[in-house]
Amino acid sequence: MSDIRSFEAQTAPADWFALLKPRVMTLVVFTAFVGLLVAPVGVNPVIGFASILFIALGGGASGALNMWWDADIDAIMKRTQSRPIPSGRIAPRDAMWFGLVLAAVSVVMLGLTANWFAGAFLAFTIFFYVVIYSMWLKRLTPQNIVIGGAAGAFPPMIGWAVATGGVSVESVLMFALIFMWTPPHFWALALFMKSDYRDAGVPMLTVTHGRRATRAHVLIYALLLAPVAIGAGFTSIGGPIYLAVAVLSNAVFIAGCWRIWRRDEPVAEVDGYRVEKRVFAFSLLYLAAHFGAFLAEAALRPFGYGGW
């Protein structure tokens, strides 16, 4: 980490908050919240709120530990150079201890608040993201985001476990939806990040196999994602509303990924990767729409809406 600048700037509370990766935490909180609310077992609102808070802290702990470990490559990549550690606002050791303390607190408190299965699941998720993905897979294999993406797919299962104390087909399908969505979402980003990953020595698929192969992988995963997403509509957490959203969203997403696959690199360079950027932006809406539809199905049932 010798490339990291000297730590002269005064640390502000916003810098510690930035370590938590708040945008990623938003996804963690939302999907865990949906997993909690669509579960067949009701949860006391106070316990539910506290549980989501501790899941959010666990997600933030993962983000802080990831930033600590990746500080050397964050200092190289343009997208991450302004983060608190490479910009010199927080020392790496302080970020490490901050993440470890948050991880311990979040796991113990979730276990005490909800149940120890949910607490253990959160602990495993933090371990998976920090050790399996960040420390091992990210710099080892172009499949890093495929396997490591499981860490971001666990939150709805944790939310479900808070309510039920276990796992079910429905929670596994919510996991599978995020797991299959992550590669095309992230590779669309990698396609227009250009040389960042190459400069940092990260074996992203765009670096090891080229953009042409990456474009094909984006389309393949979008096609594999569609039956998973649509299939969830025929379970107890699905229904006509969710199914309509899933069919429309997957049709639009596949069409966008098809356009990515059909492009050639000179054209992509000339027009500034507009298609890739649009697909990446839509992928965020895609996931929000699916989990929002799960939530709508659950919210309407007390008013006589029967789903399937």
Automatic annotation (TrEMBL):
<dbReference type="InterPro" id="IPR030470">
    <property type="entry name" value="UbiA_prenylTrfase_CS"/>
</dbReference>
<feature type="transmembrane region" description="Helical">
    <location>
        <begin position="49"/>
        <end position="69"/>
    </location>
</feature>
<comment type="pathway">
    <text>Porphyrin-containing compound metabolism; heme O biosynthesis; heme O from protoheme: step 1/1.</text>
</comment>
<keyword id="KW-0808">Transferase</keyword>
<dbReference type="GO" id="GO:0005886">
    <property type="term" value="C:plasma membrane"/>
</dbReference>
<keyword id="KW-0472">Membrane</keyword>
<dbReference type="GO" id="GO:0008495">
    <property type="term" value="F:protoheme IX farnesyltransferase activity"/>
</dbReference>
<comment type="similarity">
    <text>Belongs to the UbiA prenyltransferase family. Protoheme IX farnesyltransferase subfamily.</text>
</comment>
<dbReference type="InterPro" id="IPR006369">
    <property type="entry name" value="Protohaem_IX_farnesylTrfase"/>
</dbReference>
<protein>
    <recommendedName>
        <fullName>Protoheme IX farnesyltransferase</fullName>
        <ecNumber>2.5.1.141</ecNumber>
    </recommendedName>
</protein>
<feature type="transmembrane region" description="Helical">
    <location>
        <begin position="144"/>
        <end position="166"/>
    </location>
</feature>
<dbReference type="InterPro" id="IPR000537">
    <property type="entry name" value="UbiA_prenyltransferase"/>
</dbReference>
<feature type="transmembrane region" description="Helical">
    <location>
        <begin position="24"/>
        <end position="43"/>
    </location>
</feature>
<feature type="transmembrane region" description="Helical">
    <location>
        <begin position="116"/>
        <end position="137"/>
    </location>
</feature>
<keyword id="KW-1133">Transmembrane helix</keyword>
<feature type="transmembrane region" description="Helical">
    <location>
        <begin position="172"/>
        <end position="193"/>
    </location>
</feature>
<comment type="function">
    <text>Converts heme B (protoheme IX) to heme O by substitution of the vinyl group on carbon 2 of heme B porphyrin ring with a hydroxyethyl farnesyl side group.</text>
</comment>
<comment type="subunit">
    <text>Interacts with CtaA.</text>
</comment>
<dbReference type="Pfam" id="PF01040">
    <property type="entry name" value="UbiA"/>
</dbReference>
<keyword id="KW-0350">Heme biosynthesis</keyword>
<feature type="transmembrane region" description="Helical">
    <location>
        <begin position="279"/>
        <end position="300"/>
    </location>
</feature>
<feature type="transmembrane region" description="Helical">
    <location>
        <begin position="240"/>
        <end position="258"/>
    </location>
</feature>
<dbReference type="GO" id="GO:0048034">
    <property type="term" value="P:heme O biosynthetic process"/>
</dbReference>
<feature type="transmembrane region" description="Helical">
    <location>
        <begin position="214"/>
        <end position="234"/>
    </location>
</feature>
<dbReference type="InterPro" id="IPR044878">
    <property type="entry name" value="UbiA_sf"/>
</dbReference>
<feature type="transmembrane region" description="Helical">
    <location>
        <begin position="90"/>
        <end position="110"/>
    </location>
</feature>
<keyword id="KW-1003">Cell membrane</keyword>
<keyword id="KW-0812">Transmembrane</keyword>
